[in-house]
Specification:
Layout (H helix, E strand, L loop, with lengths): L3 E5 L3 H12 L3 E5 L3 H10 L2 E2 L3 H7 L2 E4 L4 H9 L13 E4 L5 H13 L3 E4 L2 E2 L2 H5 L4 E4 L3 H6 L1 H5 L4 E4 L5 H29 L4 H8 L7 H12 L9 H17 L5 H15 L10 H9 L6
Parallel strand pairs: 1-2, 1-4, 2-3, 4-5, 5-6, 8-9
Antiparallel strand pairs: 7-8
Helix pairs in contact: 1-2, 4-5, 9-11, 9-12, 9-13, 9-14, 12-13, 13-14
Length: 297
């Protein structure tokens, strides 16, 4: 009989995780407030649950991948939430990017009900998630993490245990700090090439093999070359939420972040230009507009 795992939150990331777990032979029980997400679950062969509580009562280990603090609070401690579920010892692998204090509140409430919340953000885009090319930053109860290794291996290529609860989020903030800068630097390099009269495809092909490359250059560069931003793996709207969290995290530590602080302005500009639902690779289009470059795509 297939091992059962649950998932709450079947958006871009959650859908990829759900499909990969099914491919790995898990039986997946899932829940999302959106009907379209539940339809994706059913189409893929998953089992529909009636609520987060229902997931917690049907799967001893399950993943949450949620878009906001409000969603996290509703899923963990709201009506029909995980805290109200019967049984003890369930392990929740919490993969969202949220303020640490919000997760800590949920962890304490769930612990009081005999349930274990692990702080396990993932590094990677939606496209990487689909290829199981994620890295998990796991933190919290070490024994619970060890019990979840098989599930985590079903959604990712690497699983890093980074210590006490909250360290996973701290690592994710650092990772997305770099993603923000590297994505913009990729766009800037391609626009510089365009201004110099070089074909963006040629610039990408050459620089991707050079010392100047980065993971974001390799992943988002092709989207920038094609000017294809309408099938997002991470939207500006979602990334702005992360930028606000990272900015506050750094400010609370009184840590200077000159490159990050400069970079975020171009993401805000993208949303102001009506690109909130596009892939963040469209920061290239923001720079092209500043440079007076017009091209198809």
């Amino acid at each position: 009989m297939a091992k059962r795992v649950g998932i709450v939150g079947i958006g871009i990331m959650g859908t990829a995780m759900m499909k990969n777990l099914l491919k790995e032979g898990f039986e997946v029980v899932g829940y999302d407030i959106a009907e379209a997400a539940m339809a994706r679950l059913a189409e893929a062969g998953g089992i529909a649950a009636a609520s987060p509580r229902d997931v917690a009562e049907k799967a001893p280990i399950f993943i949450t991948s949620l878009p906001s603090v409000d969603a996290f609070d509703a899923v963990t401690t709201g009506q029909g939430g995980i805290a109200s579920s019967n049984g003890k010892g369930q392990i929740i692998i919490e993969c969202s990017t949220l303020p640490i204090e919000a997760k800590a509140r949920g962890e304490a409430r769930l612990r009081a009900e005999g349930k274990i919340l692990l702080d396990c953000p993932v590094s990677g885009t939606g496209a990487q998630a689909a290829r199981k090319d994620l890295v998990v930053f796991a933190s919290g109860d070490k024994a619970a993490f060890e019990r979840c290794r098989e599930v985590l291996a079903g959604i990712s290529r690497a699983q890093k245990y980074v210590g006490v609860f909250g360290n996973g989020s701290r690592m994710k903030f650092i990772a997305n700090h770099l993603v923000t800068i590297h994505n913009l630097s990729t766009a800037e390099a391609l626009v510089l090439g365009e201004m110099a009269g070089l074909d963006p495809a040629l610039v990408f092909d050459v620089i991707a093999e050079s010392a100047g490359t980065s993971r974001m250059f390799q992943i988002r560069g092709p989207l920038m070359v094609e000017g294809r931003y309408d099938a997002p793996t991470a939207t500006f709207k979602t990334h702005l939420k992360d930028l606000d969290i990272i900015g506050k995290f750094a400010a609370d530590l009184h840590c200077p972040t000159p490159l990050f602080t400069a970079a975020v302005q171009f993401y805000y500009a993208a949303v102001a230009q009506g690109r909130g639902e596009e892939d963040t690779a469209a920061v290239c289009a923001v720079l092209e507009k500043l440079a007076g470059i017009e091209r198809k795509g």
